[in-house]
Design goal:
- By secondary structure, this protein is of the alpha/beta class.
- It contains eight helices and seven strands; from the N terminus they run ααβαβαββαβαααββ.
- It has helices at about 15-40, 40-55, 70-80, 90-105, 140-150, 170-190, 195-205, 210-220, and strands at about 60-65, 85-90, 110-115, 125-135, 155-165, 225-230, 235-240.
- Helix 1 crosses helix 4 (about 90-105) and helix 6 packs antiparallel against helix 7 (about 195-205).
- The longest helix has 24 residues, at about 15-40.
- About 40% of the residues are buried.
Length: about 240
C-alpha cells in the first residue's frame, strides 16, 4: 500500500476531513491552476476516458470525486442519452461545478451531490459506468472506496480510473520529478490561497501505487478485466476494469 500522505501534517483531522478542507479552500482557483499545471493535457486524458465509457453506451454514469464537474460535463456533451451523477466530498468544489453545469444548460442531465466515496449513497448494481479522475489517491481507505464502487457498479459495467503515475524512462522521469517537486509546489505557494495544497497533490501522486500495483489492488477487491493504459510518457494512466 501507499504511504499515508495528508495535506496538513500537524492536523488532528483525519485524511478525509483534511482533503475536504483543502479542496474547499482551493475550489475557486482549482480549474485555472489545474490547466496551467497540466499544460491543458488533462483535458485530452478526460476525452479518452469519455470515449472508453461511451463505447458501452451507458444509460447512467457515476463520476466520483467529480470536483468542479469537468468530466461529468464532458460525458453529458458526448454521451447523449446518459444521465450523470457527480459525487464529491467538497461542497466548495461542487458549488463551482453546479454553476458550470447551469451555465451550459445541463441541469437535467447532470446531478451533482455531496457524498463520501467510501460510503456511497446508492443501491447495489446502480450504474452502468463509474469513473474517478485524479481522486482515488485522496481516498482515506483505498480498498474500502474501491469495494464500494464495485458494489454500486452493475454486472458487466465499466469502471475507469484516471490518475497520475510516475514515468520510469529518461528524460521523462527527471522532467516529472522537476515538475512535481519544484514547479507544482512553487505554483501553489505563489498563486494558491492554501499554500500546502499543491505540495500535498505532488506528494500524494508520488506515493500512490500505479501500474501493476494498482491493477493488483483492483483484482484483490474483485474487479475483472483489469488493464492499465499509460498516457503521455507515463505521467498519467487510465485503468479500465469490469464487474463479474
Amino acid at each position: 500500500m501507499s504511504k499515508n500522505v495528508t495535506p496538513y501534517k500537524n492536523s488532528d483531522l483525519g485524511k478525509k476531513e483534511q482533503v475536504t478542507k483543502m479542496f474547499d479552500n482551493i475550489s475557486k482557483e482549482y480549474d485555472g491552476l489545474n490547466r496551467v499545471i497540466s499544460f491543458g493535457i488533462d483535458q485530452k486524458w478526460r476525452k479518452k476516458v469519455t470515449q472508453i465509457v461511451g463505447s458501452i453506451s451507458p444509460n447512467n454514469i457515476l463520476d466520483i470525486a467529480t470536483g468542479t464537474g469537468d468530466l461529468a460535463i464532458m460525458f453529458a456533451e458526448n454521451i447523449k442519452k446518459a444521465s450523470i451523477t457527480g459525487l464529491d466530498i467538497s461542497e466548495g468544489m461542487l458549488n463551482i461545478g453546479k454553476q458550470k453545469v447551469a451555465d451550459k444548460g445541463l441541469d437535467k442531465r447532470i446531478n451533482l451531490v455531496i457524498g463520501d466515496s467510501e460510503k456511497l449513497p446508492f443501491q447495489d448494481n446502480s450504474f452502468d459506468a463509474i469513473t474517478v479522475s485524479f481522486g482515488v489517491r485522496n481516498f482515506e481507505n483505498l480498498e474500502v472506496g474501491l469495494s464500494e464502487i464495485l458494489r454500486v457498479l452493475r454486472p458487466q459495467g465499466k469502471f475507469v480510473i484516471l490518475e497520475t503515475s510516475v514515468p520510469t524512462k529518461f528524460p521523462f522521469k527527471q522532467g516529472y520529478q522537476f515538475h512535481s517537486n519544484v514547479l507544482l509546489p512553487l505554483i501553489g505557494k505563489l498563486f494558491s490561497r492554501d499554500k500546502k495544497a499543491y505540495g500535498y497533490l505532488s506528494e500524494s501522486a508520488a506515493n500512490f501505487p500505479y501500474g501493476e500495483k494498482l491493477n493488483n489492488i483492483l483484482r484483490k477487491v474483485g474487479f475483472i478485466d483489469v488493464k492499465d493504459h499509460p498516457q503521455t510518457f507515463g505521467v498519467a494512466s487510465i485503468y479500465t476494469s469490469s464487474k463479474q
